[in-house]
Amino acid sequence: MSKEYETVIGLEVHVELATKTKIFCGCSTAFGGAPNSHTCPVCTGMPGSLPVLNKQVVEYAMAVGLATNCDITKDCKFDRKNYFYPDNPQNYQISQLYLPICRNGKVEIETEDGNKKFIGIHEIHMEEDAGKLVHDEWEDCSIVDFNRSGVPLIEIVSEPDMRSAEEVIAYLDKLRLIIQYLGASDCKLQEGSMRADVNLSVREAGSTTFGTRTEMKNLNSFKAIARAIENEKNRQIDLIEAGEKVIQETRRWDDTKEYSYAMRSKEDAQDYRYFPDPDLVPVHISDEWIERVKAAQPELRTEKLARYQSEFELPAYDAEILTGTKKLADIFEATTEICGKPKKVSNWLMGETMRLLKEKNMEPEDIRFSPVHLADLIGLVDEGTINSSVAKEVFEIIFDEDIDPKQYVEEKGLKTVNDAGALRETIEKIVNDNPKSVEDFHNGKEKAMGFLVGQTMKAMKGKANPAMVNEILRELLSR
Amino acid sequence: MSLTSESAVALGKKIQAKEITAVEAAQAALDAIRAKEDKVHAFVTVAEEEAVLKRAGEVQKQIEQGILTNVLAGVPVAIKDNMCTKGMLTTCSSKILENFIPTYTAEAVLNLEKAGAVIIGKTNMDEFAMGSTTETSYYGATKNPWNENHVPGGSSGGSCAAVAAEECFYALGSDTGGSIRQPSSFCGVTGIKPTYGTVSRYGLIAYGSSLDQIGPVAKDVTDCAAILEAISSYDKKDSTSINRKDLDFTSALVDDVKGMKIGIPKDYFKEGLDEEVKEAVLHAAKVLEEKGAIVEEFDLGLVDYAIPAYYVIACAEASSNLARFDGVKYGYRTADYEGLHNMYKKTRSEGFGAEVKRRIMLGSFVLSSGYYDAYYLKALRTKAMIKQEFDKAFAKYDVILGPAAPSTAPLLGSSLDDPMKMYLGDIYTISVNLAGLPGISLPCGIDKKGLPIGLQLIGDCFNEKKIIQMAYAFEQTRPYQHSPLSACTEA
Q1: Residue of chain A whose Cα is closest to the Cα of B375
Q2: CA distance B71 to chain A (A)
């Protein structure tokens, strides 16, 4: 490579909103469900049906816009985007082109070198999701499931302000946190509740004009996004270096092959024939409404980070990790509320919880256990009912099945044995059975002590109170 | 006089008075259809006799129990075939919906059912309401009950012909550019296009969504007021529905026009207007003047721009509204195809008629990138300016009076070859839809060919009562004339 190049990246991020019902009808937005069980005449495009806007969608979009420093469009409108595809029952998507709800925003990210940088937000608009096509190879046919048809989305369109994969990830991370904290979406990339299309071009360093850009689709994880950016940047540089032209086109990323291929070029780009949807009236957003949404806005991450350190006296590191996802922060606060022991709750979340998430390849959003069960577990350890190694075993089961630890410990007989008589009996037997170790101990080998403790715990199935075992053993050995 | 020659309200009163039963009324309508349908062809679907009589029996029982007290309870009605009726074929007179049975009923029809209406069938129309003659129907043309060689008008030609032929007591139509008022005029019956947003569009298969309104077609103004009162409602399922508190339209049935101001737009009486129509309409103005109204001529302005603006807006909306008919989910699908694109293309090429295709293409064109501003946006601005012209007029007048159509019903087969001429026939009705105003068409004469002439009264938004009152007053001077076919008793 003879020249220096700069990568210019802009993002289109689709986020599925967490409303209970769809954007234009009363059908459930719940994920899953038998095909076409969450449908009605509206979301299946039956003749004569009409859309009615779900107000909650407007409020979520407004909340995201306010949290990303956008201007709110006081009178926004919906437009029809016309194109034929079977997953789209009306053959038009209701979206916003001419007057999107939010414009001119920005979010601050931290770059690799630790500097702060603003990424501009061009606009945020509301729209409806499409259904899902299922291709049946055996029957040689395609069938369509409209459960997802009409699920509300916002599309957040950034300015071309990012210059590297790291900045893209930092921006996405920031957006995700903001939206999760607002409760507007769970933002799961894998499940598709957050989807990002990457617009990328390269230019010679120092140039002020943009190169020809491509749009990359089908990016299902942060890692895939990073890989796709690296790959596309190199592909475009190679083309330019070879004296060829970058073609403006949409490309699809195949993450298993780490390769992208052209889907359609600008020439065969469709004319969507956008026009205002005559079935919907303009949405008037009053100052009072904006104020109400602002007032209802929950605590965002920056505020939480500071509060965890001041109110709960957590180290900065703990606070950083716990507030890193809304879900962890929610569990932390709920559990602390019940048991009043923030540091211990933090330890369980930072330690065992994170370990299990990593081991099981899960995201914090996938956590299913109830805060009350973690609080009870902490209580059981603190009152000496179980010891810490038993607690770790019980926690794994709480993590997997959300069992009630009190009941479980009782049923499985996992309570620490505090009965000195029973303990003494077991230890005496172990001392008698292991004369070699006793001799080693008397010869000054402290390790032998550890062996005998281990044997005792094994015999007691881990339920012995470790302090008592030590005490009794020392007493017997000193005789 | 046979039972079917009664007006809807007159029949309804007899039913409430137990002089006649709902079952007898339904039987009379079914017999009338049997006798006349071959000649008039007003229906796409006639409901099954057994089902109609069963429904009439249930309604009768509820009338006797005092549950159903609306004057329309037990009165047989026909519904234009672009309104969804649960379990009953709804085709829009198109091949593409030849097998479409809706899973739900349109709100306006539901309102009628709640009042105790007995639905007797679905009426023929221009395909997707695109046309002015009912000749673009895939299921064959409807004939004018005054002369079977002439068209009934359109697009609600089936509804108006069914009322005029007395196959039913009243009907629902829909009006996007004159589709209730023009065929009412051609068939010698009365029809109202209400203020946009008065009757819910939920379940009305859309043509031009921003212009479509459902309205009544009946023998007289009294019927129309009672029907409009029954079908109007604020419907949360329709975002363009308006919550009105003044839906007691029958309260306007008063024979008094003293001091009411009538404006006659000079532009409506220029070239292109048939001499006999002009005479009859101006005579009606004179009659009203004699009854105490103040009549004045004025310049309306922008009249010539209404038709181009209308066709741009209606076709643009239609091109998108009709995209859902693609052979995927319901309706007609072509027999043989290779792949998705070919299935779409063949289904739509075979399923839509020529006029519908013409309007889809026109609408797609005006919305396409590079033309949107020049055509669609300009049409929207024109629409807003037309509304302002009417605002100015209604600052001075209570009602605007004019013809409903430039001529009486043309001969069958004489319109479709020249679409431009057919489009120009909508000149007096179209601007009312663009401005969202209420309009009524009622008979005011018969021409030398023996065909009815219609008078149109236009009111300001939400002023249905003024046009109803004036129409009612005029009607008192001119008793209802039954069409020749209405007397036919044998097939």
Answers
A1: A275
A2: 28
pLDDT by residue (tens digit) across B41-50? 999 999 999 9
| Residue B58 C-beta-side C-alpha neighbours within 13 Å | 12
* Cis bond upstream, residue A28 (ω within 30): no
CA distance A223 to A327: 21
pLDDT at res. A267? 64
The separation between the first and the last C-alpha atoms of chain A, rounded to the nearest angstrom, is 80
B486 is catalytic: no
- ipTM topping 0.85: yes
Catalytic residue selected from B93, B94, B159, B179: B179
Checking if the pLDDT of B337 tops 80, the result is yes
Give the model's pLDDT for residue A390.
Answer: 86
pLDDT beyond 90 at A477: no
* CATH node for A420-477: 1.10.10.410
What φ, ψ does residue A135 adopt, rounded to 5°?
-100, 120
In this complex, the residue of B84, B324, B340 whose CB is nearest that of residue A90 is: B324
- State residue A412's pLDDT score: 83
Interchain CB contact of B67 with A (< 8 Å): no
Domain boundaries, chain B: 3-262+395-487
The answer to whether the beta carbons of residues B346 and B337 sit under 8 Å apart is: yes
Let me know: does B52 contact B23? Beta carbons within 8 Å.
Answer: no
CB–CB contact B239 A41 (8 Å) = no
Nearest to A45 among B201, B209, B324 (CB): B324
Whether the CB of A31 is below 8 Å from some CB of chain B: the reply is no
What is the DSSP-derived secondary structure letter of residue A204?
E
Superfamily of domain B3-262+395-487: Amidase signature (AS) domain (3.90.1300.10)
| Secondary structure element (H or E) that encloses residue B368, with its range | none
In chain B, residues with a C-beta closer than 8 Å to the C-beta of A278 are 208-210, 240, 317
Residue extents of the structural domains in chain A? 5-288, 299-412, 420-477
Is B368 close to A90, i.e. CB distance below 8 A?
Answer: no
Say yes or no to pLDDT of A425 above 90: no
DSSP string, B122-163: EE--SGGG--SSS-S-TT-PPPBTTBTTB---SSTHHHHHHH
With H, G, I as helix, E, B as strand and everything else as coil, classify residue A118.
strand
Of B209, B316, B368, nearest to A279 by CB-CB distance is B209
Is B80 one of the annotated active-site residues of the chain?
A: yes
Instruction: Summarize the confidence of residues B319-344 as an average pLDDT.
Output: 96
* Contact criterion met (CB below 8 Å) for A373 and A402: yes
Say yes or no for a CB contact (<8 Å) between A48 and B328.
no
Report the candidate in A411, A341, A330 with the shortest Cα–Cα distance to residue A368.
Answer: A330
Phi and psi at B96, nearest 5°, equal -65, -20
Half-sphere exposure of B15 (CA within 13 A, CB side): 35
The phi-psi region of residue B11 (left if phi > 0; otherwise alpha if psi is between -120 and 50; otherwise beta) is alpha
pTM of the model: 0.88
d(C-alpha A282, C-alpha A77), whole Å: 5
CA-closest candidate to residue A179, choices A151, A149, A155? A155
